[in-house]
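Dear support,

I submitted the protein below through the web form. The confirmation email said the job was done, but the results page showed an empty box. After a refresh the structure appeared. I'm attaching both so you can tell me whether what I see now is the final result or a partial one.
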Amino acid sequence: MNRQSNMEKWAALYVRLSRDDENEGDSNSISHQIDLLTRYCRDHGIADHKVYKDDGFSGTSFRRPGFQEMLADIEVGLVNMVIVKDMSRFGRNYLEVGIYTEVRFPEMGVRFIAVNDGVDSDNQMDNDFTPFRNIINEIIG
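What the results page shows now:
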């Protein structure tokens, strides 16, 4: 991974919409999520970012092409931050969400932000309710 240290890293903007989410209206649409996340980047001085998307994929499985592409970029050291609209867009499997956000991302030096849920791995005080939110997302998923 040392050879990657001279490369610019970017923020991964991850968006997902399942067929079931389409019934909830425009607020979960892919374009709405991208607009929200790019505005967040602009407002927080995050210049370099790349959108990874999964349209029509359930959040209960992490075998989604956009997610796998993002994970591959993280594993080779190209990504320093993952930003999602909310925890349910990242995933609806409590255990796997926790493995990524609590173990794998911190081990790889990747910051995790869920904009609408107020989750930021750089601020542990804000994350006390995240596990409960993940359980609810799995139940209603």
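Response: this is the final, complete result; the empty box was a page-load delay. Residues 1-5 have pLDDT under 50 and may be disordered.
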